[in-house]
Amino acid sequence: xxxxxxxxxxxxxxxxxxxxxxxxxxxxxxxxxxxxxxxxxxxxxxxxxxxxxxxxxxxxxxxxxxxxxxxxxxxxxxxxxxxxxxxxxxxxxxxxxxxxxxxxxxxxxxxxxxxxxxxxxxxxxxxxxxxxxxxxxxxxxxxxxxxxxxx
Length: 151
Known about the structure:
The protein has helices at about 40-50, 60-75, 85-95, 105-115, 130-145; strands at about 5-10, 20, 25, 30-35, 55, 80, 125-130. By secondary structure, the protein is of the alpha/beta class. The N and C termini lie far apart (about 30 Å).
């Protein structure tokens, strides 16, 4: 069993000085970060082994939509970064029932609709890209059930 919380980044490379190859990084804060390309959801399940895990989606394309689907099937919370573009914004607008203004996002939304990625909206948390690292940290704490940071 993994002694750390699981965080998956889908569609958005993680740049971390503790990088291991192109697929994984271990942060000094005890988070295991995996960048998923069709193995992420499965790998999370194997490594997390019952521990809290969350997927983070920023931008992305067709493979990202498939990863989102696999994470939905696993019942894993998913943080969507609003304003990051394409797949992330497509799922956000689909879940909200709105039409995106951007053509690429509209095409992605059609694909997301075909995959029924709005079937478990309770799994999604949306964080605006404008909220930066603080907003993402807050969403991660909420999704992983961690106590809020003391101020």
